[in-house]
Amino acid sequence: MLKPQQPYKGLLLSVKLHPYVVFLPVEQKDKILSAIFGSKAGVDVLRFSLKQGIAKNIYQKDLVKSLNYSNKTIIANLQTLTKLGVLTECMEKNEKEGRIIWVKTYQLTDLGKWFALLLAEEKELTEQEKSEILQSLFRTYVKLVKDLAEELNINKKNLEEIFKQEMKSTPQN
After folding, report:
1. What residue numbers bound the domain in which 87 lies?
2. DSSP bridge pairs for 105
3. Same domain for 110 and 43?
4. Looking at the structure, do residues 89 and 26 belong to the same domain, yes or no?
5. Do residues 76 and 160 both lie within one domain?
6. Cα–Cα 20 to 30 A to 98, which of 8, 27, 59, 144?
7. Residue 14 domain flag
8. pLDDT given for residue 6 in this prediction
9. What percent of the chain has pLDDT over 90?
10. Domain contains 5
11. Angstrom distances, CA of residue 148 to CA of 53, 138, 168
12. Where are the beta strands (DSSP E) in 9-116?
């Protein structure tokens, strides 16, 4: 008789899976997920950022030009995503026709980048972006594991030994 997990293991071997991991602030988890996935506009803002490069500034005027939403909808989504920590808002100083103009810009936070990656195709990312994302994800994960180990009174040396063993081991096919 088959064990319940066996069909799943077979699926894992036959289908290429993407390792999606997103760390969410506990107190805002539902709001963040709803803001992004409860509205096509939120998803489209993330897709826009992927297309232009996740490290580049996002400008409201570019979103209005590129996406099929009203200025009001774009502004509302930018404000919500900023409030929830998916985007950061900055001011950029520009000179236009001899005048100084301040323009609001937005950038993905680490949390925002992880959500954008849920939507990304691997081929859309540069090797450098993949490397930076993996390192950021690993650092965050290690910190969370360390904090949990302290909370559970687990000796960090045991975790360090597991890490060393896994880094030495060869992948199993």
Report:
1. 20-122
2. 59, 90
3. yes
4. yes
5. no
6. 59
7. no
8. 40
9. 27
10. no
11. 34, 15, 24
12. 58-59, 87-96, 99-108
Residue type, position 112, single letter? G
pLDDT value at position 110? Answer: 81
Instruction: Report the alpha-carbon distance of residue 145 to residue 158 in Å, rounded.
Output: 12
20 closest CA partner among 134, 125, 124: 134
Exposed e or buried b per residue across 69-99, where buried means at least 16 C-beta atoms within 10 angstroms of its C-beta: beeebbeebbebbbebebbeeeeeeeeeeee
Mean pLDDT of 97-104: 90
What tokens were used for 80?
A: 């919500």
Over 60: is that where the pLDDT of 173 sits? Answer: no
pTM across the whole model: 0.66
pLDDT tens digits, 35-92: 787 889 999 999 899 888 888 999 999 999 999 999 999 999 999 999 988 999 999 9
The answer to whether the beta carbons of residues 119 and 37 sit under 8 Å apart is: no
Question: Dihedral (C-alpha) 22, 26, 31, 35: value to the nearest 10 degrees?
Answer: -20
